[in-house]
Specification:
The protein is an alpha/beta fold and 220 residues long. It folds into 2 domains: 30 residues, no CATH class; 165 residues, P-loop containing nucleotide triphosphate hydrolases (Rossmann fold), CATH 3.40.50.300. Helices cover 33% and strands 16% of the residues. The chain has 7 helices and 8 strands, in the order ββαβαβαβαβααβαβ. The strands form 2 sheets. It has a 6-stranded parallel sheet, with helices on both faces. The chain has a two-stranded antiparallel ribbon with strand order 1-2. Strand 1 and strand 2 form a beta hairpin. Helix 4 packs parallel to helix 6. The termini are far apart.
Length: 220
Amino acid sequence: MRLGAVQIGTASGFLLPPATTAAFFFLFVGEEVGEYMPSKPSFGLVQVFWGNGKGKTTAAIGEGLRALGRGFKVHLLQFMKCGIEGNQDFQEYGELLALKQFPGFTLERYGSPSWVIGKPKPAHLKAAAEALAATKKAVASGEFDMVIIDEILYAVQLGLIRESDVLDVIQAKAKDTELLLTGSHQELKAVNDAADLVTHLQKMKHPFDQGILARVGTEF
């Protein structure tokens, strides 16, 4: 079916070029949707979520939830998220409790129960090396439709791994595996250049600036 320019609107009307016409029919003409939606899912892109705004992990988890709802297999691997010493609430985040209810969801967590402040400790470096090895194995396996590597970009920012390590992960990815990478307040240009989708989350306001700490059910 070929679509030419179409005029819609009120008495004066306005002209839609062919490409926009296709989009218009996709959105508003139900019987034509089949001509524009692929009959089979197309996974295999690389997505990056970075910036100083809240929502990087949230965005990736939300996309994973969407895939799980469609019956796809989603694997989540987390850097630097293995609980916080002395705080039971951080042993398992709310999103993990929810995602574990899906049969297609699997999880690996790596990290040390202490913050990385200044120079990383040997325990931090060891956990990051283990997470990196597990990451390369997961993305190359072809076993999963989607792999989310949470906080891997923060691991670069904090000096636990190198940006080149992330590029190696992207290179090792199985062709049909969708790869989502999160973290970092600092732009990793080479990683962004290698990605198909890059979302920069920028903080405008945050409750933390008012002294409101992380809350159960919204932050974890």
